[in-house]
Write a structure and sequence with these properties.
Elements lengths: L1 H36 L5 E7 L1 E24 L4 E6 L6 E3 L3 E5 L2 H43 L5 H40 L2 E3 L8 E7 L6 E2 L4 E18 H4 L7 E6 L7 E12 L5 E9 L10 E18 L4 E3 L2 E8 L6 E6 L1 E6 L2 E6 L5 E5 L10 E3 H18 L1
């Protein structure tokens, strides 16, 4: 039993020695790390100079191009589509014939309406004759009554016949007007079997955007046949957030880019702003007019609209990579000290607008150089080894060293 106690004590001592060695080793490593992050060991970094430069805040909004004007040509009457004179992509002039419908039934309606009008006109002539006879008879009865040759009853009968003849003539004239209206309606329906390109505006040409019907198909009244687009001017519809909405005004200029023409900028101008935000996205629509005289752009293209929301002439600017966050503070590391032993000093800053890789610093006033790579290893006061400068020195010295060897 004594031997077991001794063995247990030895095991405990060994365990304590092992744990102590591990704790000591970690403490030494932590000390070395702190010296590396602090003032003992130089940290390799890259730096760039602080600049005074103009800077612009540019926002990029995505959206879709739409035609400035678009309308759908539809058949006003039903029937079989006999001929379709245009197709997708064709240029169309104002007044050009687009399609023809089968018109046999409509021609029959016109002929029937003309025949009914002829009957009504004949009835009018007959009523006119009856009126003339009734008027003459009444005049004769008046003369006879004055001479006491006819009775008062005969005179009253003549007056009634005259009124009846006048009514018959009025009915005949109304029937003619009715038949004329029926004829005009039949002629209008017949004209609707010929479908022409008509639109409001100063443009004289448009392009067929879509075909909805084919020759030989039966169309219902108001059924679409083709759509006509005005594409010498387009609209770019984009959605903007509340943050940017108030900074965008009607008349503000920008430019857009499309994947079809990489690197080419197309001018655009804000023409309308929606007064309402969508509840789901909290965004509002902004429309921009896009000149397209060469018709290089096409409706439906995906567009990236670039707009300058603010611009400053000369500001303190640093590369965006220079700004880091330390706990709750946002700042950057300035390079200080002499050339042999440069050191880092953390400076809290108030950032401004972003222009590409450059960031405006609103405060404080800065000059000199800032660390742009390697900040994660820095604390305030760390020694620096500026990698770019060391590399240049090595490149200059290497040929000389090679000759000495």
């Amino acid at each position: 039993m004594k031997n077991n106690v001794i063995l247990s004590v030895v095991v405990i001592v060994l365990v304590l020695l092992i744990v102590g060695a591990g704790v000591l080793r970690r403490a030494m490593e932590d000390g070395d790390g702190e010296r590396g992050r602090g003032s003992g060991q130089a940290v390799a970094v890259e730096v760039e100079p602080i600049e005074y430069r103009p800077i612009r805040e540019v926002r990029v909004f995505t959206g879709t191009l739409q035609p400035a004007r678009e309308f759908v040509v539809a058949a006003k009457v039903g029937g079989r589509l006999l001929n379709l004179e245009v197709d997708i992509g064709d240029l169309v002039e104002r007044g050009q014939l687009l399609a023809r419908l089968e018109d046999d039934e409509f021609r029959e309606e016109v002929e029937q309406a003309r025949a009914d009008l002829a009957v009504a006109e004949a009835n009018k002539e007959e009523a006119q004759s009856s009126l003339e006879l009734a008027s003459a008879e009444l005049e004769r009865e008046r003369v006879l009554r004055e001479r006491d040759i006819s009775s008062q009853a005969d005179l009253d009968t003549a007056k009634a016949r005259l009124r009846a003849a006048e009514s018959s003539l009025a009915v005949a004239e109304a029937t003619i007007r009715q038949r004329e209206a029926t004829l005009r309606a039949a002629e209008v329906r017949l004209s609707h079997t010929r479908i022409y390109a008509t639109w409001e505006g100063s443009d004289t040409e448009r392009v067929v955007g879509e075909r909805y019907a084919n020759e030989g198909g039966n169309l219902s009244a108001n059924e679409a046949i083709v759509s006509l687009l005005r594409i010498d001017e387009l609209r770019a519809n984009v959605e903007v957030t509340e943050r940017d909405y108030g900074r965008i005004t009607v008349g503000m200029e920008g430019f857009l880019r499309v994947d079809t023409y990489p690197g080419e900028d197309f001018p655009a101008e804000v023409s309308r702003k929606s007064p309402r935000f969508a509840e789901q996205t909290r965004q509002a629509r902004v429309e921009l007019s896009v000149p397209n005289a060469e018709q290089s752009l096409r409706p439906g293209m995906f567009a990236r609209v670039h707009m300058t929301l603010s611009e400053r002439d000369e500001v303190i600017a640093v590369p965006r990579d220079a700004v880091v966050r330390r706990e709750s503070r946002q700042g950057l590391f300035l390079v200080e000290g002499d050339e042999d032993e440069p050191r880092a000093r953390f400076v809290e800053v108030e950032p401004g607008i972003v222009d590409g890789r450059w960031l405006e610093i609103r405060s404080p006033e800065l000059e000199g150089r800032v660390v742009t790579l390697g900040q994660d290893q820095l604390v305030d006061g760390s020694y620096l080894r500026i990698v770019g400068e060391d590399t240049e020195a090595e490149l200059v010295e290497s040929p000389r060293n090679g000759n000495e060897r």
